[in-house]
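Open question from group meeting: does this chain pack into something compact, or does most of it stay loose? Before anyone orders reagents, we agreed to write out a predicted structure and look at it together. Recording both the input and the output here so the notebook holds the full record.
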Amino acid sequence: MRLTTLCYIEKDGAYLMLHRTKKENDQSHDKWLGIGGKFEENESPEECMLREVKEETGLTLTDYAFRGIVTFISDKYETEYMHLFSASEYEGEIRECDEGTLEWIPKEEVLDKNIWEGDRLFLMRLDDSRDFFSLKLVYQGDKLTEWKFWSP
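Structure tokens returned:
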């Protein structure tokens, strides 16, 4: 089981996205994602997300929201529980990332990028509602075969 965070930083109608092209043996190679990574020992979801954003972008978030939990079930990869955040304010300057290229992508173009099929579901939810949610995604290989949303 893997615990991760992912944050979509928004500015002027665009998300800061990472095009993952630099890591060896990366299950998300050539995909576009938000900013995030794996928990370190004793971290809360917020601590992990803030650390990962700082490490990958150089930015310090000053306004963010915990938006949901996404459960990934796969026949190819270990089960992952991703803690999803959005952010709208930050301090600092973006720096080069050692995992790929950082780029501001207009929100209306994000779904046209090479993203995971299930990411489309929660990205639409990020724009439609501020409600906290849980989403379960089931993959066979890289193909999404089942999904279900829950909202309080």
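Observations to bring back to the group:
DSSP finds three helices and nine strands in the chain.
The two ends are 25 Å apart (CA to CA).
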